[in-house]
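hiii, so i know i said id send this last week but things got crazy w the move. better late than never?? heres the sequnce for the chain we talked about at the cafe, plus the structure i predicted for it. fair warning i was half asleep when i ran it
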Amino acid sequence: MSRHDTDSSENEVLTDGAPLHVELTDTDRRVIDLLTAPQRAWFSPRFYGLDNLPAEGPVLLVGNHTLAGGTDAPLLAHEILVQRDRLVRGLAENVLIDVPVLRDALHRLGIVRGNRHNCQTLLRKGEAVAVFPGGGREAMRGKGQKYQLIWEGRTGFARMAIETGATIVPMAMVGGDDIFDIVFDGDHPVMAPVKRLVVGMGLRANLTPPLIRGVGPTLLPKPERFYYSLGTPIDTAAWQDFEDVEEAASELQTVVKKELEGELDFLLAERAKDRGRSLLGRTLGFLGL
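okay and structure toks below
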């Protein structure tokens, strides 16, 4: 894996020594195939609209954060790499990047520390970057909040897209909220000790993780099919002439949110008529029953 960008100016250097551009070797691609193979077999994903991803230039893929965000997003990134030959740059939590060996492995796959500087720098270099405006709050959703976008006040992604001239592509994912059942969400009285621990760690109380279960009483995820859709690209040039940047970002956020909700509705409709949504259905289909 090599680094082609050698400009050492402050604005073109990523934090933690991460490479500006990543060229995956054949070995890297085989490793990624192997790492994602178990999940692909278990969740049998379906993909729609991958042709909506521009072949080049700065792209901000804006998605919904599911309960299983660390499981579903990598499968979409793998499919984009295979079908479109484009590496999607991911933004990792600080707790992951702070582990030296893990940080090096993530950098090798194009994943960097999740902060505004890194995101803007990658976009200015023409990379494709995935972001989830709802963040941890959306991931730590409560009961009855499946596939809801919790974006109140989250306009930073829109402002970055406007400032860098990046195209926004809505990135919808369905399935990740169904592979686990929420026994108690973070607001349940039973979870009070966990909530106190979360607050004691300096985090917001609404980031308290729910108590979940998968197959039976275990944490093995249920083999629900994953569904993905990339929506119609949104050219952000129309918002670059606004005098009030915050107004522009707020309006663009509203547009993106509406488009993403439309893609989620499409996937939920596709799932509703899919006999192979469950492992049993897929097995019966394979047997011709």
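btw DSSP finds ten helices and ten strands in the chain. thought thatd interest u
miss u guys!!
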